[in-house]
Write a structure and sequence with these properties.
By secondary structure, this protein is of the alpha/beta class. It has 3 domains: 3-187, Rossmann fold; 192-269, Helicase, Ruva Protein, domain 3 (Orthogonal Bundle), CATH 1.10.8; 270-367, no CATH class. The chain has helices at 10-13, 23-35, 52-62, 80-88, 105-108, 124-136, 162-167, 173-179, 196-209, 219-227, 233-247, 260-269, 273-277, 281-286, 315-333, 338-345, 349-358; strands at 3-7, 42-45, 69-74, 89-90, 102-103, 113-117, 138-140, 147-149, 153-158, 182-185.
């Protein structure tokens, strides 16, 4: 979607804040509520699909401009040569194909909010033109001389590191500082995996309102989704839930029903709560300070096996023991440095800290 224009009655709908109860999301909501009372320019940072437009919309709906238009433009989806006309409009005959006068997004958003998504993809010449509008609050249509004054609240967003872009000569420093008045970092889904059940429920309700069946996830399937890395963030989750609602309208979705990528990642990363909670007393004892001490008496049980023993095994306890041994080895190799150990394991530092916390080991105790 390259552009969107709509007005919304906040008295009826109210602002829709990002879904979640983790501290990361609570902080975002607090920032939204604080900046919504002002007309300051906002720069929303975060990975693709993390929910940056939800933040932008919530700011608009919480502000005194909520009765005015909310206009969204994806700067990365519009060719550079057309973006100027898209934003500022054009006069008849301004270029080939301009058969009629057309208002731009700045005019359409008058009195409301203009959301410039993927601002990091904007060309340098276009950045100069945008900078003038931010500085002087005036613009001209393409092919025209009339100067228009604008009363628009600007919210920009990007998944790029703009400071790195500045160093590479791909983004103007003066524009960055004009946009970066009030930055908001939207965390990725893997940084707030505790919000996953609420997000899933939110998407299920959206699908029900769209006429689809109410999805039911079996516990094992939910735990596998918790363990997945979510490179596509909340957008990827929403797409998956819609797909599952269509495929399984009349029964619960089991682990084996999930697409393979969501199962294999879970099996390899071993990060499910059930693995940690279902361990027997010996494993619970193993999973405390013994991360930093070798345990020769459990070495045999933590070696991966190729075949199922004749008398079977406790799979959850076995996987938990393997995970614990690998974390123990990574911490030993890194000298107790969590960040280094996390890199050795291919995990984010926060993920490893959470694993240690669940097993009764504080990060401070490793220093």
């Amino acid at each position: 979607m390259t552009q969107m224009t709509e007005a919304r009655d906040e008295k009826i709908f109210g602002p829709k804040y990002p879904t979640g109860r983790t501290e990361a999301v609570r902080q975002v909501v607090r920032l939204i509520q604080q900046v919504a009372r002002h007309d300051s320019t906002v720069l929303i940072l975060g990975e693709s699909g993390a929910g940056k437009e939800v933040v932008a919309r919530a700011i608009h709906d919480s502000s005194h401009r909520r009765g005015g238009p909310y206009v969204a433009v994806n700067c990365g989806a519009i060719p550079a040569e057309l973006l100027e006309s898209e934003l500022f409009g054009h006069e008849r005959g301004a270029f080939t194909g301009a058969y009629a006068q057309r208002a731009g997004r700045f005019e359409v958003a008058e009195g409301g909010t203009l959301f410039l998504d993927e601002i990091g993809d904007m060309s340098l010449p276009m950045q100069v033109k945008l900078l003038r509008v931010l500085q002087e609050r005036v613009f001209e249509r393409v092919g025209g001389n009339q100067i228009f004054r604008c009363d628009v609240r600007i919210i920009a967003a990007t998944h790029r590191n703009l400071e790195q872009q500045i160093e590479r000569g791909m983004f103007r420093g003066d524009l960055f500082y004009r946009l970066n008045v009030f930055p908001i970092d939207m965390p990725s889904l893997r940084e707030r995996v505790g919000d996953l059940p609420l997000l899933i429920q939110d998407f299920i309700e959206q699908n029900v309102r769209a006429g689809r069946a109410r999805l039911v996830l079996a516990p094992a399937a939910l735990e596998s989704l918790r363990a997945y890395a979510w490179p596509g963030n909340v957008r990827e989750l929403g797409n998956l839930i819609e797909r599952l609602c269509i495929l399984y309208p009349d029964r619960a979705v089991e682990l084996d029903d999930l697409p393979l990528r969501y199962r294999s990642t879970a099996a390899m990363s071993l990060t499910t709560d059930s693995v940690l909670q279902a361990t027997t007393e010996p494993q619970s004892e193993y999973a405390t300070d013994n991360f930093l001490e070798a345990r020769s008496d459990t070495e045999d049980s933590t070696n991966p096996i190729d075949e199922l023993p004749q008398d079977g095994l406790d799979l959850r306890a076995h996987l938990c023991a393997i995970e614990s041994r690998l974390i123990h080895e990574a911490l030993q190799r890194s000298g107790g440095t969590v960040a280094h150990a996390a890199r050795l394991l291919g995990l984010r530092r926060t993920t490893l800290v959470e694993k240690l916390r669940r097993n009764g080991v504080s990060e401070a105790s490793l220093v």
